[in-house]
Amino acid sequence: MTARKFFDQFADEFGKGWVAMTTYRVTAEHTRSGWWALEASEVGAVSQTRRLDRAEAEMREAIAFLADVPESEVEIEVIPVIPDEVREAMRNSEELRSEAQKANRDAAAEARRAARTLHAAKYTYRDIGTVLGVSHQRAEQLVKS
After folding, report:
1. Boundary residue ending a domain (81, 105, 126)
2. Is the pTM of this model over 0.85?
3. Same domain for 108 and 69?
4. I need a labelling partner for 16 at 20 to 30 A (CA). Which of 24, 106, 108, 109 fits?
């Protein structure tokens, strides 16, 4: 069996109902008038929308028409063009969020250690709670976790 014949047979048996999806990149740039200018340079499609979350729907029909494919075969990746200052602030925010999560995990571990140390010294859960500034129920959870 030739490779072509095998491929044709495979496509006949297994390819039914499969849709070839093509992903098109759409850049979205915010204008001074408050609109988003949209462009899919691969096919020359341009449009605009008031809201960024509507960019994909706004471009789907135009891309499908210009690419001569059904709309159901068009997948869109919207790429907002944002200032470098904003991109840097977003990156810093993510780093700080990650550091805060680590700090929270470390703080929780230290609270458990403190509760266990007090419990080992025969403090009651109510006294542990009072010392740590938590309820007696939370003190028990810290000791047992």
Report:
1. 81
2. no
3. no
4. 24
